[in-house]
Structure formats: structure tokens, C-alpha cells
Amino acid sequence: MARKVIIDTDPGVDDSMAIFFALASPELDVIGLTSIFGNVRTPLATANALRLLEIADRADIPVAQGAHDPLTRLFEGPVPFVHGEDGQGELFLPAPSAQPLAIPAAQFIIEQLRAQPGEVTLAPIGPLTNIALALRLEPRICEWVDEVVLMGGNALVPGNASPAAEANIRNDPEAADLVFGADWPVTMVGLDVTLRVHMRPADIAEYATHGNAMSDHISRILPHYRRYFEANYDARGIFVHDSSAIAYLLQPDLFQTRRWPMRVTTAGIGRGKTLPTTGGQTLPAWSDTRW
Ligand code: BDR
Ligand code: CA
């Protein structure tokens, strides 16, 4: 039976790749998309989620709109230089025909997990505000979830939104600290992984050769994204962030994992840094540490 997944997303070029990757994988049953600010503001993330489902001919999948701002601050703003003003490589697509659900993302997540305990995996590939709000409203989602597999954070490598922090976590560190601290299984597919998942120009060129609506769309939105990476990193091609979390859902044995307690820095120049306890048995766990 296909694994049920809710993707919490800020589409976003690499989010679009991840969503289509999941939709094209028979092992996964995408039961909803929830939108969040990050690469774009939340209303545009919602519209893009609806647009992507229409392109994929999967308008049957519901979209629930998420929070407009992080838990404790206002959203600092989108990143058009990475994903385009429209979050879709500046294609400026027409408005979607469908509407989001009448309930907010956090409520949708709670209702789905409550109705199908043990069956639904959360795959957040944007800032973690919706997941934290759902946890606050209904802590029992920890018991009901199958697993949380997220793209975000940087354990042992530098950040990409600041020298310290990765973009998704940096956008709402308080939310991320709640999500990592909750009593549920979280797998972080962070920059430690995704900066090693590299698509070269020849790989990218393949998207234009498949002749289906999803791969055509990706081939059209990738040039803007690729220009950002080639101008800012010593790279030809792109890093494949969000799809790496989907790849983990499909084939976890491709990945090496470590089991480390995790906290998130919420203040100072390290704001948004994910802090694993890597010191082994002699180091006190975060919960036993005095500050
Ligand atoms: C993450 O930030 C966003 O720009 C990407 O969509 C990805 O989720 C990478 O740091
Ligand atoms: Ca994303």
C-alpha cells in the first residue's frame, strides 16, 4: 500500500521538483499539500501549490493554506533572486482555477493525522511554522504521526541563509526547536545531505526530453534557479534540496543517518542554527544541560 504523505511546502523551484517527484512515485500517496511562507509569501505559495497540482492533473489533492508569519516575528521576506518573483522561475503562470480548503494548514494536518493514526508521514520542505502550530494545538499528533521527514537545517556544515543557518530553519527557529523537541520520530535531511546531491547540466537537460507536463514545467522553471547556483556557488548545475527528503522516503538505505538530540539556536548571530548533540555518551543531553 502506498505511504500517505502530507507535503508542507513553499513552492519554490526545488519544492516543485519535490512535489512532482512524490506525485510520480507510486510508493507515495500525497494526501495534501500545506503552504507556508519562505521562498515566496504564503498566498503565492498556496497559489503555486494549486498551480502545480493542475499541471500534474492532480487537482483532486487538497491544498490548505498555512501561516503568513513565523511564530514570534514577521516574515523577513521572499528570495526572488533564487526562485523568481513568482517562485516559479519567472514564468508568471495564470491564476489557478481551484481554491484552497477553508481550514488552515495546521487544522488540516491535525484532522488528517487524527483520522488515520499511524498512517500519515509529514514531509515539511519549508519553514516549520505550520507543523509547530499543529503541535501546539494538538500535542497528540506526536502519537498519531507515522514519521516526520523534513528538509532543513545543517548539522555539521555551514548555513546557506546565514553563515550559521539553513534557510528553512532560519525562517522560523522557534518553530523548528518545537518540532525537533517534540516526542516523535524526526529525520532531518539537511544541507549535510543536500549539498552533496548535485544535478549537473546534462541531468537538467533531461527534463526537456520526457514529454510530460511535469517534466516540461520543471525544465522551464530551472534556468532561473540554476543561474543563482552557478553565480553563487562553485558549481555547474544545482543542488537538489527538497527532493532529497522525498528520496529518503522512497529509499532510506541510500542515506547514512546519525541519531542525535537536536536543538535550534533562537538568538544572536547563530539564529536558526541546528545544534546536534554529537559528543557521544560522556556529553550531557540537551535536556540535562544548564544554561
Ligand atoms: C531550502 O530553502 C529553500 O530555498 C528551498 O526550497 C529548500 O527548502 C534549502 O535551504
Ligand atoms: Ca522549500
Describe this structure in words.
The chain is of the alpha/beta class and 291 residues long. It has twelve helices and ten strands. Strands 3-2-1-4-5-6 form a six-stranded parallel beta sheet, with helices on both faces. A two-stranded antiparallel ribbon has the order 7-8. The protein has a two-stranded antiparallel ribbon with strand order 9-10. Helix 4 (105-115) crosses helix 5 (129-137). The mean pLDDT is 95. The structure holds beta-D-ribofuranose and calcium ion. Residues 10, 12, 15, 38-39, 125-126, 242 line the site of calcium ion.
A few lines on this structure:
36% of the residues lie in helices and 15% in strands.
Lay out the secondary structure.
Layout: E1 3-9, H1 13-23, E2 28-35, H2 42-55, E3 63-64, H3 80-83, H4 105-115, E4 120-124, H5 129-137, H6 141-144, E5 145-151, H7 167-170, H8 173-181, E6 186-189, H9 191-194, E7 198-199, H10 201-206, H11 213-232, E8 238-239, H12 242-250, E9 262-264, E10 274-276
Parallel strand pairs: 1-2, 1-4, 2-3, 4-5, 5-6
Antiparallel strand pairs: 7-8, 9-10
Helix pairs in contact: 1-11, 1-12, 4-5, 5-8
This protein binds beta-D-ribofuranose and calcium ion.
Average predicted confidence as pLDDT: 95
Continuous helix count: 12
CA-based shape: globular
The span between the termini is 47 Å
Q: In what order do the strands lie side by side in the largest sheet?
A: 3-2-1-4-5-6
Structural class: alpha/beta
Small molecules bound: beta-D-ribofuranose, calcium ion
